[in-house]
Amino acid sequence: MSVRDFMVTDVVCVEIPGNRDDVLRILKRTGISGVPVLKEGELVGIITRKDLLRKAEETQLGLLMTPDPVVIRPDAPISEAAQLLVRNNIRRLPVIEDGALVGILSVADLINAIAQMRITTPIKGNFVSRTYALWEETPLTLVGRIMEISGYDAIPILMEDGTLSGIISERDLIRHSRIEDGIEVSDFSNGTDDDEWTWESIRDLHTISYGISRIQLLPIPVKKAMVRNVLAVPLNAEVSECALKMRRARVDQLPVINGNRRLVGMLFDRELIKVLLPERQDLRKS
């Protein structure tokens, strides 16, 4: 199977120069996590949800984006795509043919491929990651900071008795964010007593005011922003079965639970696509 078989050809893009708020609206409306950035029709970068959340005070797309993104050709095998995504710790690959952007291939597209491969290997011992969880009363602003520090794309949320009650992801943070505008004042005065008509006096008393715009998370408990009725899987669930659940629910991760609905780990899509790596052929035997 090749990249061409699974890539998306109707690609949502943004152009520079452009505005950060336009990208935020696109991500909120579509639910996608990142878009290619073009300049005069040529691919120059990628901008993601993480970029917006980590650089909340930046507005210029050229400074927000990751320049010179890793790309792939449409006739490449999906195993090569999996290698590039895993090695570079990224979630999407622009597909370039004859110098032009013809599509994009994401981790979700590879999950779609795995769902069709009927791999019966259990996820236990191969793909389940250790994780941590947060209490459902944790303020959303603190959740955002914890996700930024940890690098996790999603965090399970627990009730007081320790049972799973929901999950929060970057997508949910973007949905519950707002743009706050204001005025910032920079005062360069040094309190000089020089004659007011000297150049030094004019320079030193100079004050600059300029507009600012920041992304702010709403001041609410995480339980009001999280996804409830979480789709979870047991430790003996099979690889392709889990991939199919991810594809149908359009999620990037699945909590892994025991018979008492106690959280034991997380299954992330970026871990599941490792089954496509050449060195993991043994796990693809059904």
TrEMBL record:
- Taxonomically, which superkingdom? Archaea
UniProt keywords (A-Z) are: Amino-acid biosynthesis, CBS domain, Methionine biosynthesis
Any one Pfam family match given in the protein's UniProt record, by short name: CBS
Record-linked InterPro entries: CBS_dom, CBS_dom_sf, Diverse_CBS-Domain
Instruction: Read off the SUPFAM superfamilies from this record.
Output: CBS-domain pair
| UniProt key word Amino-acid biosynthesis | yes
Can you name this protein?
A: CBS domain-containing protein
Which species is this record about?
A: Methanoculleus receptaculi
